[in-house]
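Weekly puzzle thread! Below is a chain. First person to post its structure in token form gets bragging rights.
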Amino acid sequence: MVFSSLLFVFAFLVICYVVYAIMPGIRTRNVVLLLFSLIFYAWGGPSLLILLVGMTLVCYVGGRLIERYHARRKLWLTFTLLICLGLLAVFKYTGFFLFNIQTLFGIPETIPAITLPIGISFYTFQLLSYVIDVYRGEVKAQKKFWLLLLYASLFHQCIAGPIIRYSDVNEELENRRTTREDTARGITRFACGLAKKALLANGCAAIVAEMVEKPESLTTVPAMGILLAAVCYMLEIYLDFSAYSDMAIGMGLMVGFHYRENFNYPYIADSVTDFWRRWHISLSSFFRDYVYIPLGGNRVGKLRHIFNLFAVWFLTGLWHGASWNFVLWGLYYFVFLMIEKLVFKIKKERSRGVLRVLRTGYTLVVVLFGWMLFYYTDLNELWIAFKGLFTLNGNALTDLSVQSEFLNHVVFLAVAVLACTPILPAIGRAFENLREKAASREAGGASKVAVAVYDVVTAVIPVGLVFLALLCLVGDSYNPFLYFQF
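Winning reply:
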């Protein structure tokens, strides 16, 4: 079950929140959330629920032991981390490891198929943040196992992120209040995310499939077709990932949880460094706080600093999937970050004017090629696609099918690009400021009309977005789920 499905929107979410709303007290409401979260996760495979519960139990016991036996807290932390990371490695990387051993030594053994639990990387990192923060003394160990399980399994973000740290929600687990404003904001945020996923991300995914997933060989795809597919995948992956974050943040607000933002319009970044401050913020900050800084960060010698960054980006790539293309993707960004830090010495200050345009253009080109690395798990296909982009496969520069595909979707692509910028939110904030000014005026019927019109429009927009999204979903449109690899 995924957020962008009719079953989830019409049945699961509605029933969950109706039952939640009629229950008295935060404790019973938490029980409702826990039960529905476990049902949601078990929908993808009931047996995999055992792993989630078991890993949460390990971290629960580990956190209690770390807090109780302070002198040996490093030992208990080590045991807990080894168990959790060991389970992650077994389920996610065993096949990858055995395949490479088989390829290297030519062993003709059949590699066992291991089902990858959906979202294991997300909830593992969440539990690790809890245990490490208990070790550091930043949070108290949770004394109620079922509340820690609620934190780990919350269906809002369990299978698709963002990575929510325990320290961000530990107070709200047992002490939160849902206001009308939060509910309204949550519904609007969820509606925007659902529309972004169903209307835009899925539309971009369909173009990618049409261009580079055809039955014929990739070598026959014109260069402009590969470029169009690369641009559409670039749009898709942002719109898809940010849409799920929007929906998670919105659903959290509806029940009183305030999750941090996970994306900040990364495609307007003016450097690769700036891009990674804006992209998947919860993951970037996790590696910064729990890997990079403990290794010494930049407060070490130059060679050690380079090694620290190498380790972070190697792990970042590997986290995204058990395939060499993801490792190369992580190291690809390591190289550009090193160039920016050591050669160009780019600062945090924003560039302006023509320089900003040039730097943003450079960043978009780097990111575009990076997403090609991310997309092609087969390195041979990746190489063919790279060559085809420069017509080195003997392929044409363009043809009528590519031109037709572009012209048929030019308006759609313009809207998708617009959705990747902060222009629409800025317009919304401007109208909201006008509404507040109109509401503050004591006299004038025109002001009251303006306020009423604004309120009606803001109430209708989420309904309209959900309606349009559901039309696409009812029409059985292309609806891929990108998070299976995680």
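Puzzle host: Confirmed. Bonus trivia for everyone else. Residues 224 and 398 are 5 Å apart (CA to CA).
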